[in-house]
From TrEMBL:
Keywords noted in UniProt: Iron, Iron-sulfur, Metal-binding
Annotated PANTHER family: ELP3_MIAA_NIFB-LIKE RADICAL SAM CORE DOMAIN-CONTAINING PROTEIN, SLR0285 PROTEIN
Protein name (database record): Radical SAM protein
Gene Ontology MF terms: catalytic activity; iron-sulfur cluster binding; metal ion binding
Length: 289
């Protein structure tokens, strides 16, 4: 872990990243890609030391209230958050200045901040987005080794549902020849049905690989799935988009099953909802949900 000073913290689309790098160790993580120009070791988390000061100023001076999002580049609830509490401090600012909140996470640490998330949701709007990739607990420990497994994340979704916090699931990535099977897709959707998830974001069955994350991914394939790297190279060469050979069949299952369950599966509609700040204070969920 190391500290840095930054010039700004709130993006034009109202996103924040209080940290750079991540300790979850997910073998497929796109944030390792060279395009993001992270100059330090990915596990040596960069903490933006002045981020809360900048966030306070940005939120206070916003002419209109917005949905503040986090988690696109680094999980806001990685292990160092237990001690530093930057995310919790950001939530206090978001609540104080009357904005909304949404985040993407894989961590059950988010339950620590349930009190603040509930207060934000009662005042404006809060939505929690949870990533689910595999229903196989042992496989989850390989794919996402330093964070709670899928069953625990499902428990988190249940708890959020009990507190009337709307949730969205990211069903991705689906790794060819690893978790691209019918049982996995069916089970994850069943989890979403059981926990009253409002929407599932899925960009197709597959993953993306580019310089930086490709090399790390292949290294982990060699460690955990002998010979599979050669299969990837043969099938996909140096492509960016790595689709499952079963994508059509799995997407049919996804679309049919989510539609039958009344779960929104249109990513554009879900993103629209996530960015939509309620027009009136205490307005409940939009027509989409």
């Amino acid at each position: 872990m190391h500290y840095s000073q930054v010039k700004s913290i709130l993006s034009p689309k109202n996103g924040i990243n209080l940290y750079r790098g991540c300790s979850h160790g997910c073998i497929y993580c796109d944030s390792r890609s060279a395009v993001y120009q992270i100059k330090h070791d990915f596990e040596d988390i960069e903490v933006k030391e002045n981020s809360l000061e900048l966030l306070k100023k940005a939120l206070k001076n916003k002419r209109e209230k917005v949905m503040v999002g986090t988690g696109s580049m680094a999980d806001p609830y990685m292990s160092i958050e237990k001690r530093l509490e930057y995310t919790r401090s950001a939530l206090k600012l978001i609540y104080k200045y009357g904005h909304g909140f949404t985040c993407i996470t894989k961590s059950d640490l988010i339950l620590r901040d349930l009190d603040l998330i509930k207060k934000i949701n009662e005042k404006t709007k809060a939505v929690v987005q949870m990533t689910l990739t595999t229903s196989d607990e042992e496989l989850c420990k390989i794919l996402e080794p330093n964070v709670c497994t899928t069953k625990r994340r499902v428990e988190v979704l249940k708890r959020l549902n009990e507190e009337n916090i709307p949730t969205v699931v990211w069903l991705c990535p689906i790794l060819p020849f690893i978790n691209d099977n019918e049982d996995n897709i069916n089970q994850i959707i069943d989890y979403c049905i059981d926990t009253n998830v409002k929407g599932i974001i899925c960009f197709g069955m597959g993953l993306t690989l580019r310089e930086g994350n490709r090399e790390y991914f292949y290294k982990k394939l060699d460690e955990n799935f002998p010979e599979l790297k050669n299969k990837y190279i043969t099938h996909f060469k140096n492509n960016y988009h790595i689709p499952s050979p079963y994508s059509h069949k799995l997407m049919k299952i996804f679309n049919e099953k989510t539609s039958q369950a009344g779960i929104t599966n249109n990513s554009d509609e879900i993103f629209g909802y996530l960015h939509e700040f309620p027009k009136k204070e205490n307005t409940k969920q939009s027509k989409l949900f």
